[in-house]
């Protein structure tokens, strides 16, 4: 009985430590196996969705002081995936990402402000096809805590973020005019991030 109570107290202490990570400056590394870096763009009268399958990122997070939050992330343009081989090949070409010349799509935050409980405006330098523009993500902190078995718990955190960019701002101008008027592709691209991250031990 004493051994059981001792294990229970240790487990609770570890969980409390992990949860408190959200209330102090903590560094998290994005878990690529449980995260998605997605996008969508209008195609005719609906939307086509895609994602990048290779990416990495770190988030320095402080729930009490947004000015201490920092985000640094990179996605590999050649890992673009829309579940259509022909379309993916076109996206990798010079008409779109030109992956051989521009292998990285990067974001580095420059300013973060709180926008409500667990909500943030994350502004930074977004680089694609060799062009850097300032963009702002609307981000949510979903929480942090200890997961896994009691003898090997792991600290995890969850975040989501979205923004809309103009693809033409980054030199992606390819389109096709329709016979009846209008164009095939929209100019707005919505970026949608769903991130699970592991705490980096100092």
Topology readout:
Blueprint: H1 2-20, E1 26-30, E2 36-43, E3 46-52, E4 55-61, E5 70-76, E6 80-81, H2 85-92, E7 104-114, E8 119-128, E9 131-147, E10 154-166, E11 185-199
Antiparallel strand pairs: 1-4, 1-11, 2-3, 2-11, 3-6, 4-5, 5-7, 7-8, 8-9, 9-10, 10-11
Structural key phrases:
202 residues; Lipocalin; disordered N terminus; 8-stranded antiparallel β-barrel; mainly beta; single chain; 11 strands
Summarize, please:
With about 200 residues, this protein is mainly beta. It has helices spanning about 1-20, 85-90; strands spanning about 25-30, 35-45, 45-50, 55-60, 70-75, 80, 105-115, 120-130, 130-145, 155-165, 185-200. It is built from 2 helices and 11 strands; from the N terminus they run H-E-E-E-E-E-E-H-E-E-E-E-E.
Detailed description of the structure:
The chain is mostly beta strands and 202 residues long. The protein has one domain (2-199): Lipocalin. 13% of the residues lie in helices and 50% in strands. It contains two helices and eleven strands. Mean pLDDT is 89; it is low at 1-22.
Overall structural domain count: 1
Mean pLDDT: 89
**Number of distinct helices:** 2
Order of helices and strands: HEEEEEEHEEEEE
Number of beta strands? 11
Shape: elongated
Strand content: over 45%
Q: Label the structural class.
A: mainly beta
CATH topological fold name: Lipocalin
Strand order of the largest sheet: 1-4-5-7-8-9-10-11
Return Rg in Å.
Answer: 20 Å
Largest sheet: 8 strands, antiparallel, barrel
Q: Can you identify the CATH superfamily?
A: Lipid/polyisoprenoid-binding, YceI-like
Q: What is the level-2 CATH architecture name?
A: Beta Barrel
